[in-house]
What does this fold into?
Amino acid sequence: MIKVNDVSKTYGKGDNLFTALYKISLEVPEGSTVAIIGKSGSGKSTLMHIMSGLDHASSGEIVIGDKSLTEMKAKQIDAFRASEMSFIFQAFFVEANQSCFQNVMLPLEIAKSPRSQRKKRVEAALKAVGLEEKVDALASTLSGGQKQRLAIARAIVNRPKIIFADEPTGNLDSATGELVIDLLFELNKKLKCTLVVVTHDGELADKCAIRIEMKDGEIISASNSKTKKVVRRV
Amino acid sequence: MTTRDIIRRSGRSLKSAKGRTILTALAIAVGTFALTLTLAASNGATAYVNKIINDNFDPSELIVTADPSIFGQANTSSPKEYDPSFGTGVSNSGATTQIKKITQADIDTIAKVDGVASVREDITVNARYMTREGQKKYVTTIASYNPAQKPDLLAGGLGADFNGAKLILPEGFLQSLGFSSAENAIGKSVIVSIPKNFSPDQLKAQLLAGSFAQTPEQLAKSIQDNADNVVFTVAAVSKKPATSRPGTELYIYTSLDEARALNDISTSGSTGFRKYNSIFVKVTNGNKPSNLDATAGRIRDLGFQVRTVKETQEFLTNIIGVLRGIVAGFGLIAIIASVFGIINTMYISVLQRTREIGLMKALGMRRRDIGRLFRFEAAWIGFLGGAIGSISAVVLGIALNPWITKQLNLSAGTKLLIFVPLQIFTLIAILMAISIMAGWLPSRKAAKLDPIEALRVE
Ligand SMILES: Nc1ncnc2c1ncn2[C@@H]1O[C@H](COP(=O)(O)OP(=O)(O)OP(=O)(O)O)[C@@H](O)[C@H]1O
Ligand SMILES: [Mg+2]
It folds into this structure.
């Protein structure tokens, strides 16, 4: 369960003060799928960064399971992220000069997972995304769709409880995008991990159990009852 | 991340930027190359000096002279008063000099000084020639043998019976004197001709006989003929020494008593009779530096110049140290210059991998580990540079050693470049430490990078 309680995020001071998020509250049950949609600049990525502890909220609280990210130290949040979460980005962010194997290995090294299991887990993750043939290929030689699949393999290798995906199909053509979407939902079912997707893609959003629409840093509609709508008083 | 993973990951990321890495490492390699060769050369020179000293001197002895100029400490810029008892000589630069010598009286005084075990004159006799029946005559010098010397022998031995008219023949004379082998020479006789001065009686007789100085040729002949031919037995044959004092390679050594007798023959009737440039003073328990220094002080108080073998050694080692310092300075400058190369390269590396750093942070990598990742990368560059530089220095040194030995006319087997693995490893370790320091600022920049900013970079 991810709980977002009254989270606000502001940038700048005085006249330059900009509110990117305003009193956001929502709940995501374990193993669920959430789509965050909205126009560009509406604060989707910012919300996702704060939910994952990558960014700090200006006020409010994030609780994951029974742990409050707001109360944790930076080091603890890092360790928590390494063991419980993973990310998929629009621009893939694979390490181009490294082999697929080394790319997928990275989260295992960061989480200090036992050396003896690493090879097996990397190979299993690559197999799950259909890249078992490319184990030793350099990431730079992969196509866009393959790169995103590699990023997914990297995201699932450490068996995270939550996967955050920021526009995972944004850089892909619709056919490839669909393959990636199918893969993500298949993994969500198989691994029982929570999936938080930021997207412009209506088709992807429709497949999610919860659908949250944002505008100007506020939630304007939510498909599950527990999400509070807070309207800003101007 | 564990240290092992970080080391391997940083190594791999260097591999993917080979050109840049190698160029940066080469700058360090140049400095390392110079430093490794400098260290090797000073190791070799120090070892060479120590071997010369240990092969030629007894460290528990003091070298005592009456004249400071022998130790190169004389004041040559102010006039010196003439002393008729010294006799005149010619200095290296061709100037007339008078060297104050040590007399028998001095020896007796010194022998009584507290802590002195024995006194030994440093005798060299300029023989006229050495020969053997049916062979040519060869110029030679005879010196007193110091039992502390341990020359490498090809044949024969130097037992307690090495006394009287026995000598050690250098290998170089074997063929010239017609010996077929070193063994063949042992026990054979050679003749050494020692020049003599005319005694007053001889002069009188020659003058009375009117045969003296009628023509310059006759004069030359009578001087030539005025010599004692001493018959020696070859007791041992010495190998061409690797480390004799330069210029003494073909010295013939005989026992101290015999050398004294020969010296008496050649100097009787001259101002040089029983006078010595230097003497060796053996100190009781002289292997203890404190005893050596105390005795040296007491002899100095008597107005003599004293130098310990250790001082001579230190003097030479100091010269080597100064030379080493100069070359090492250049190596250090090269390394300091390369530090900026490392800083630059590491900054580029951090900039190039901004997104990668953002990703690693997003995946939960700790700031400390990110910093370490880049510091290890810098350490790798230092290691590479150190390894390239020192390995090429070692390869070149090993290849050059025989040539240097030949050029400097050292005997075979002597190495002037001595590589000590521990020194090289220490050097590389220091380089790695320097590289890590050079990588400090760039790695801090990487560690401090805001992951959200980093991931926004297109
Ligand atoms: N560091 C910052 N300083 C000031 N404003 C910022 C900063 N980061 C984000 N913002 C602003 O916050 C708002 C929300 O940004 P965010 O990246 O969350 O939008 P988004 O919904 O993800 O848009 P897109 O769909 O284009 O990715 C934007 O108006 C952006 O300009
Ligand atoms: Mg965004």
